[in-house]
Amino acid sequence: MYNYGIGGQERKQDASEGITEISQNRTLLLEKLTDDPAIRPEIVGDLKTVDEVFAHFKPEKEVEFESEDGSTYNEMLRFRTLGDFGKRGLINQSAALQELN
């Protein structure tokens, strides 16, 4: 069901990600998603979409997994879209999680 207001225009929903663009009069605050220490706070202007934020910051995290025999190994998980934070996104990146699935 479409919801229109006075002067409204239809805006088709993307099926890929359930997030709308950030209005120009809004500020987006981000959380640190890497192991790299910040030298000093970084202010970045002109990032208008979530895709631009991911492309600029390239968040990634090294995760330690333990096998059944007790040995441990590391895998690097990279986050390029919001979908990478979900169950499928994590499983697709990790051999350890694919074996469990």
Mean pLDDT: 78
Distance between the termini: 37 Å
Report the principal-axis shape: flat
Order the strands across the largest sheet as they lie in space.
1-2
The H/E string reads HEEHH
Task: Flag low-confidence runs.
Answer: none
What is the count of helical runs? 3
Overall number of domains = 1
Helix content: 10-25%
Radius of gyration (Å): 19 Å
Q: Which structural class should the secondary elements be placed in? A: alpha+beta
Please tally the β strands and state the result: 2
What percentage of amino acids are in beta strands? 5-15%
The biggest beta sheet, please? 2 strands, antiparallel
Descriptive report:
- With 101 residues, this protein is α+β, with helices and mostly antiparallel strands.
- It has one domain.
- Helices cover 21% and strands 14% of the residues.
- The protein has 3 helices and 2 strands, in the order αββαα.
- A two-stranded antiparallel ribbon has the order 1-2.
- The longest helix is centred in the middle third of the chain and has 8 residues.
- The two termini are 37 Å apart.
